[in-house]
Amino acid sequence: MIKRKGLLLVVSGPSGAGKGTICKEILNRRKDIKLSVSATTRKPREGEVDGVNYFFLSKEEFSKMVDNGEFLEYASIYGNFYGTPKSAIIECLENGQDVILEIEMQGARQVKEVYGEGVFIFVLPPSLSELKNRIVGRGTETADEIEKRFSCAFEEIKQIDDYNYFIINKDVDTSVRELEEIISAEKNKVTRYKENIIEKFREEL
Predict the structure, then answer these.
(1) pLDDT (tens digit per residue) in 17-47
(2) Cα–Cα 20 to 30 A to 130, which of 21, 70, 80, 199?
(3) pTM
(4) d(Cα 36, Cα 9) in Å, to the nearest integer?
């Protein structure tokens, strides 16, 4: 058998593009993929559960983790801090477990610097007008927050060059299918496993 490390799937996109919905659906369909739970200093939205959606921390707790080097990445987004605890992720990858990480662009760039083997996927809305409709429809932001997120969207889309793949999220089923195709292709990429493949067949000589 060829020993395969897990894939770190880094999913980003503008607020309202649907990256969270896509991640949730693929986790429902694929029990072989684990969700990376991020830490944040923002307040929980209705229905969110500590330790499931996020680890909800005070700014003091978050700062202490930064000082201790406990994050794979962290960033300040819309006045709150978000970060990815790293030890559990690295352990999963080494054991062959795929991990999906839904983060903003600042954090994705940091992850790419630390773990360049990650698979970086950008979720796009069909249009900016549809993006705004989705943000308004969530009903979780104030009018000022909606305008702030919408005005940032194009600047975020311009950062797509940092990513390996993109998905235009017209509907969830199609988007999840495209994500699964990306995963399948990456698992059979020669550059990931060349040495393992050669060693396996050398042993059979």
Answers:
(1) 999 999 999 999 998 999 988 899 999 988 9
(2) 80
(3) 0.81
(4) 10
Q: Does 72 fall in a domain?
A: no
Q: Is residue 23 part of a domain?
A: yes
Return d(Cα 195, Cα 68) in angstroms, integer.
Answer: 35
CB of 189 closer than 8 Å to CB of 147: no
Amino acid at 192: R
pLDDT in tens, 56-98: 999 999 999 999 989 999 988 888 999 999 888 988 999 999 9
Number of separate domains in the chain = 1
Q: Is 138 part of a structural domain of the chain?
A: yes
DSSP secondary structure string for all residues of 104-123? -HHHHHHHHHH-TTSEEEEE
State residue 161 phi and psi, 5-degree precision: -65, -15
Q: Give which of 62, 82, 84, 58 is closest to 71, Cα–Cα.
A: 84
